[in-house]
Amino acid sequence: MLFQNGKLLVRLLEEEDQFLLAKWLSDPEVLKYYEGRDNPFHLEKVRNVFYDPEDETMKCIIVFDGKEIGYIQFYQLDAEAKVEYGYLNENVYGIDQFIGEAAYWNKGIGTLLVTSMVTYLLEHEKASRVVMDPQGWNKRALKCYEKCGFKKVKFLPKHELHEGVYQDCWLIEYIR
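^ Aminoglycoside 6'-N-acetyltransferase, sequence as received from the core. Prediction below:
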């Protein structure tokens, strides 16, 4: 277990979680917000993307009230990203997440998850900032992140390919 906050638990990804990831990332309702409906993940693709031993990203499963409901990952920004975003001599972490069980959407779990992960990164990884780059059209996600203390700092035009179109994103940050 990485951390627990009430009914929320975040643990490291395990081998048997590949089936959950394949289920969630083949659901069009989830893919609308994460990866795109034109980019479903079959089991082999899950293994290639999420179980690459060379990848230093910390990959985790979100558990709420004893049920696996989603995925979160965190990583230290590399030198190239730090230069691009202007974070030269700082310990900056990025996070990405999704709740794969739609029945758990709009219940405040995303807010609890993001605030808990930020606290973990500040306390355990000594992050000076935590950043994300959500797509600009995803108002629900942006509202959640702003509620968690993130601020928009840089508009990123045509930053991420999603469903065949490069989408505008926002670089948002939480500062210690």
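The helical segments are 18-24, 28-31, 43-50, 79-85, 109-124, 139-147.
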